[in-house]
Amino acid sequence: MGKALFISDIHGNMPAVRALEKEIKKISPDVIWFLGDAVGKGPENDQTMDWVRANCTHVIKGNWDDMAVELYKEKKEKQTIDGEFWKVLGPMLTYMWDQLGEERLNWLAELPFESEILISGMWFRLVHGRPTDRLYQAYDSWEEMAQGFNSKVSDRKFDAYICADSHMPYLRACGQGYAINTGSVGNSLGVPRVHGILIEGDLGSSEKTPFRTEILSIPYDNQAAADAVDLYPDFPAKDKDSWKKEVLTGVYSR
Fold first, then answer.
1. How far from 233 is each of 53, 185, 240, CA to CA, in Å?
2. Residue 221: is it exposed, middle or buried by C-beta count within 10 angstroms (0-12/13-18/19+)?
3. Is the Cβ–Cβ distance between 207 and 33 less than 8 Å?
4. What are the φ and ψ backbone dihedral angles of 15, each rounded to 5 degrees?
5. What share of the chain is helix, strand, coil (3-state, %, to 5)?
6. Contact partners, residue 176, CB within 8 Å, separation at least 6
């Protein structure tokens, strides 16, 4: 038996990471999969990304990761980006780029969009969600959920998939198999705690054996996460109140 931890969506929240670290020491997972979005929205993107690089066994790309890389390329080529989208997200992206620097952005660019893992005779597809897939929500219909079993890079028939992106953890049985969401480490929707998925089973084994799935729900210092934006003078002023509300209440305002 082995333990695989699946986490995602840290979004620049180091107080949440510190709470997660303590739990990881107790759990002692054999592998840690990061399913995207270490960066974006929060104030400490360089630190959260460096933590992922140092502590996660495998990493795939999320929608914020992809957006950061692709728009950075566009900005370098065209020198300017126009439109309402840029008016809304431009200040945050510029702040994030300044923190990350060229080397980290190049690392993000090379990440795959999906992967897979074999546990107790079951193949799990691993994907963030957007940009390759839809945003899989806990309240989706079976038909909507079923789309997650369809890989963009493999013809394998999957027994389950683990996704992220919605920032809400869940486990659903939906006809073809299991649909699982990691929830968010640093920007949870609904319940403002650190979330993740722990699966205990026979890692890498094709023999069909029992496995156990747990949703981790870890309290952290939400006030410290809210106050962190005030430590960074360059953090976009229009995003400060939104970030504070989200990490304190789990209610989104942007």
1. 26, 24, 11
2. middle
3. no
4. -60, -35
5. 40, 20, 40
6. 146, 149, 158, 159
Query: In the 8-state DSSP scheme, what is residue 148?
Result: G
pLDDT of 85 reads: 83
Cα 134 to the chain's mean position, in Å? 15
Strand 122-127 with 114-119, pairing = antiparallel
Query: What is the structure's pLDDT at 83?
Result: 83
Find all residues with CB under 8 Å of 92, minimum gap 6, and list them.
40, 41, 236, 239
3-class secondary structure, 185: coil
Distance CA 215, CA 130 (A): 22
pLDDT of 39 reads: 98
- The helices-and-strands tally (H runs, E runs) of the chain is 7, 10
Pinpoint the alpha helices (H) of 60-134: 63-78, 84-109
- Picking from 150, 205, 203, 138, the residue whose alpha carbon sits closest to that of residue 176 is 150
Q: What's the average pLDDT block by block, 10 residues per block, for the chain (254 residues)?
A: 98 98 98 98 98 98 96 87 85 96 98 98 98 97 96 97 98 94 98 98 98 98 98 96 97 84
Sign of the CA dihedral with 184 first, then 186, 191, and 197 last:
positive
**What is the model's pLDDT at position 181?**
98
Rounded distance between C-alpha atoms, residue 160 and residue 174, angstroms: 10
One-letter amino acid for residue 83 of the chain: G
Give residue for tokens 């431009």: 90
